[in-house]
Amino acid sequence: MFPIRRAQSPSDPTDAGQPPARRRGALLAVDLLDIPFWRRAAPALLAIVLVGLADLLSGRDRYLAPLMTVVPSIAALTLRPLELLGVCALGLLAVFGLSHHDEVDTINDARFLWGAMISYLLLTVFSAWVARVRMRRAAAFAAVSSVAEAAQRALLRLPGPVVGPLRLAVRYVSAADASRIGGDLYSVLETPHGTRVAVGDVRGKGLGAVQTAAVVLGAFREAAYDEAGLCGVAARIEASVERNVPDGEFTTALFAEFRRPGVVELLQCGHVPPIRVDQDGLAHVLDAPDPWVPLGLGRLAFGEPSSWDQAFGIEDVLVLCTDGVVEARHRDNGEFYPLAERVGPLVRGAARSAAELEAAVGRVYADLLAHTGGELRDDALLLLVTRTDPVWT
């Protein structure tokens, strides 16, 4: 759950769901008010200069001052109403000056001047109203964006950089326009049964996917504390999905449990297999010996899901992701992103510190964007996990 979209990383929310500074920043950014006034006014001021030069260079037999009416239209795109009136006042002075230069302010030709002035003033008033409407819409958009981020924080309950014996680094991008929430999900919990991780990808995107993600995450948070094994956790979530999610909807998921030194227990439910990167930078794709169907489709399968153990040492990095990462297409040839081929060198040595792990996830995400040309068309989640407990070898 990033045009280029910004990747989200864990941070501390306020009681309102989003820090006030970030809410103000969202409003400023969406209406360009985080840009200095002189830069926002530059297009309108440049139009004044260009019209003035065109009139002066064309000679007194060419009256081009009426072209100054483009100034209010341009100013309405970037300026506040009062700022627009100030800039347009300069344009009005320029109209007077050009009219005097072209000698159309005499008794006989004053009708041209009056026509230019009235047109300019009417368009200025209309443009000020447009600027006010634009600012109101920008404020509404910023409010929606703020609520969306608060909803994401309430839904995901983003973990800190360290949970139990695990160190985390994450990048999360929603493909939904003007939204920071999507159908990808993850959770990391310290439980009596060890530290448990869930990564999932809901079929589809948008509000329906968010609702399904909420069901899956809520069930995981309950079952992770109650169930002794990952299979029991998956069964509880499966039952909750069947009760609360419409038929035909499903969620791929991967569960991991860190309880014993040197080992991670995994359970795959139709999800992208994890990758273990060792201390030499070699990537090992951890395919399940007996993969299970996605959550929500369990009634269509025979048998039960089964977990398996994998070695996971102190120098290793576990790479978890959703299909938005591995199915991201190349900007030119349309090939999928080869995560297993590229991730090793990008995260090598990342287990040494939190700073290096965060830098590693940034490198992988930057490489992903370079592959796609800077745009992701699907929800994407990238989670790196290392062990902090020094007794692991």
Automatic annotation (TrEMBL):
Keywords: Hydrolase, Membrane, Transmembrane, Transmembrane helix. Residues 166-387 form the PPM-type phosphatase domain. Pfam families: SpoIIE (PF07228). Coiled coil: none annotated. Gene3D superfamilies: PPM-type phosphatase domain. InterPro entries: Bact_Sigma-Reg (IPR052016), PPM-type-like_dom_sf (IPR036457), PPM-type_phosphatase-like_dom (IPR001932). Residues 1-21 are annotated as: Disordered. This is Serine/threonine-protein phosphatase. It comes from Kitasatospora purpeofusca.
